Amino acid sequence: MRVTRLLDDVAHTDSLGEAIARALRPGDVVALDGPLGAGKTTLARAIAAAWGVDPARVSSPTFVLMHEYEGARGPLIHIDAYRMTGPGDLDDLDLPAFASGAPVLIEWAERLGAALPGMPIRVRLEHAPGGGRRAAIDLPDDVLARPEASALARGDTTCPVTGARVPASAPAWPFSSDRARLADLHRWFSGEYGVPAQDPPDAHDA
What we know:
Blueprint: E1 2-7, H1 10-23, E2 29-33, H2 40-51, E3 66-71, E4 74-80, H3 87-92, H4 95-99, E5 104-107, E6 121-127, E7 133-138, H5 141-144, H6 150-153, E8 157-158, E9 165-166, H7 178-190
Parallel strand pairs: 2-5, 2-6, 4-5
Antiparallel strand pairs: 1-7, 3-4, 6-7, 8-9
Helix pairs in contact: 1-2
């Protein structure tokens, strides 16, 4: 399943990071891809913060390839594959030994190709027209089946009352506000959403 989110600001990025972290379990892999400056490390910090890691400790591990952080929910692995030349580099990290007890965040994951472990949560970040970032998130079926993934599985939408864009992080989602939610409820109670009854066709007209 793919959902998309428009990340207009840091708050929306933090909200996405929190939703990802809430759904994570030890052994999960989050594959972060996108061009330079798309916000991969920023999102990794947001995920780590929601995992209970001090985000100030999280930086792109380009030169050491891998960092391991200890958070309130346990260890978290952070890998940057930018300088990796192939699957052998990943083997040198002995990732399975680490990943069995911790979620793994991998920046530039597409460089690993088929060597990418497991069925990852894939997040593709792109620069959005007009500013901000757009995130396309592919969720494996086993992640979707988790109750904790409900907030992650919903994407940005359009409010059925106001027509405004509603970020997935909005408290009143899929409405733009509590006022819009109440207006929608009023329409239901007042019969505005009712389907007009139709008289059955006259048998003599057949």
